[in-house]
Amino acid sequence: MKNLTLVFGLVVSLFFLSCKENTTAQQIKLISPEEVYDAVRDNQNLQLVDVRTKDEFGEDHLKTAQNICVTDDDFKEKVAKLDKNEPIYVYCRSGKRSSNAAKILKEMGFKEIYDMEGGFLNWESQGLQEKN
Fold it and tell me: pLDDT, tens digit, for every residue of 53-70?
């Protein structure tokens, strides 16, 4: 009887652990500007978030991006309105702020997080076109 209880407890524990793993991102994927370009080109409804300031975003940004600044106090409140079950792509100027944003998104339960390596500067150096 003790063994049966122990086995049942292990099965229940494994069930809850496996469910937890499916609800949050396993890792944040650092991807190249070319990979972001391909994703944006193939899906104009992509959750693409520029985490720079409003002023930086106003100077230039990727065509379909929305601006949610990671240093604003309401960052979590704003990103909470996005779909946690859909892939989300983030970028900033050089990659530091988007890395921080990606970590926050992971903590909030986003399942598929992509961080553009090198940020907007890297995008520009690659001569990619999907800019505003």
Answer: 999 999 999 999 999 999
**Listed residue (117, 128, 112, 110) closest to 61, CA to CA:** 128
The one-letter amino acid code at 31 reads I
Distance of CA 101 to the CA centre of its chain: 7
Quick count: other Cβ atoms within 10 Å of Cβ 21?
Answer: 10
Distance of CA 82 to the CA centre of its chain: 10
Query: What does R_g of the chain's alpha carbons equal in angstroms?
Result: 18
Structural domains of the chain sorted by starting position, each given as residue range(s) with its CATH number in brackets: 24-125 (3.40.250.10)
DSSP-assigned letter for residue 25:
-
Can you give 45-65 as a three-state secondary structure string? CCEEEECCCHHHHHHCCECCC
Bridge partner list, 130: none
- SS3 call for 26: coil
